[in-house]
Task: structure prediction
Amino acid sequence: QQQVKQSPQSLIVQKGGISIINCAYENTAFDYFPWYQQFPGKGPALLIAIRPDVSEKKEGRFTISFNKSAKQFSLHIMDSQPGDSATYFCAAGGGNAGKSTFGDGTTLTVKP
Amino acid sequence: ETGVTQSPTHLIKTRGQQVTLRCSSQSGHNTVSWYQQALGQGPQFIFQYYREEENGRGNFPPRFSGLQFPNYSSELNVNALELDDSALYLCASSFDRGSDQPQHFGDGTRLSIL
Result:
């Protein structure tokens, strides 16, 4: 049973556009929702994270929107750049077990 | 500040063999988590070590085992390798246990089973 579902699988956006990636979770015990960026041949790097007590968090061009009642959260990349082309993963975690559950990733291509 | 380093970068083994992967955690971090990332999928949690003890385990068989040393570096051992074990193995360290701690990933070990 996949606990974190991510969509779309791939996304193509023009330079300067907005990229939107969505995730849905099932386990209400999750209380930490990070997003990671992964380039080919590299490990995932933490981009931004949110807790369920806030509905939105913004860091630079990256914004997380969180809807606790719908058990959904999304990543918005404003003014998308070719350098943003990478695979993005949402994740969810909770408690002291240290386990993070990842979505299957979205491959973003930003065209110049 | 030295980041998370993993060795080796690539490894080729055959079915039935055993393998040991190594991870040096980021300076100041006492927690290490291991993940398996199959091609085209997200990382899957194998287990976490906090101060040399296992602190949570994912849905992986006992032939996946680990260790954490007093300097907080860690090893992942896999026995009786199967073809499905071919994947990128990622190590992540964090300042403390708990899934709300930012995790810093290494670049992984690419394991191929022939």
About this structure: The first strand of chain B starts at residue 5 and ends at 7.
